[in-house]
Amino acid sequence: MGTDEILGLVTGILFGFLLQKGRVLRFDKQVGAMLLKDMTILKFMLSAIVVGMVGVALLSGAGVITLSHKPMNVGAILVGGALFGAGWAVMGFCPGTSVGALGEGRWHAIFAIAGMLAGAAIYAELYPVFKSTVLAWADLGKIGLPEVLGVSPWVVIAVFIPVVLALFRWFERKGL
């Protein structure tokens, strides 16, 4: 096992540990998120996004990594987002929480994982069809928010963090 695999394994275990400690693997938290009555999962995701944004900007600025955006494809985002949301609503798990729940011994999560693997296999088989249909709808190219706005990623981060903190404060005042 190489260094990349070891780092991936350690990162995955750490992420699973944080998911479990953040209680986002719990069914009541999943349902509460879908009903907009419990923002634990949203707070967890926003925290991860902030840490990721800062980490990626630092690594990119230091030349450790080179950013390569995926194409901004509106059709793929709409269809993929709808499928993701439907799967989450039906199973009560997203990809990360399904594996975490299985790690906690909740065997029913295996159905969510099997569904994700089946969906990935179907996508791979139907890719030629998707390439000329869904993936061809409104392809805006390899863009990111800083490029669209014509600003440094740090400007986006500097605006995003206070918005997230204000949301957190509002959630806490509302008991969410």
Comma- or semicolon-separated keywords:
176 residues; mainly alpha; 8 helices
Order of helices and strands: HHHHHHHH
Class per helix and strand makeup: mainly alpha
Helical content (DSSP H or I, runs of 4+): over 70%
Instruction: Please indicate the percent range of residues in DSSP E strands (runs of 2 or more).
Output: under 5%
Description of the structure:
The protein has 176 residues and is an all-alpha fold. It has one domain (3-174). It contains eight helices and no strands. Helix 1 crosses helix 5, helix 3 runs antiparallel to helix 8 and helix 5 runs antiparallel to helix 6 (109-132). It is globular. The mean pLDDT is 89.
Task: Please give the structural blueprint.
Elements: H1 3-21, H2 27-34, H3 40-61, H4 74-91, H5 95-103, H6 109-132, H7 145-149, H8 153-174
Helix pairs in contact: 1-5, 3-8, 5-6
Short note summarizing the structure:
This protein has 176 residues and is an all-alpha fold. The protein is built from eight helices and no strands.
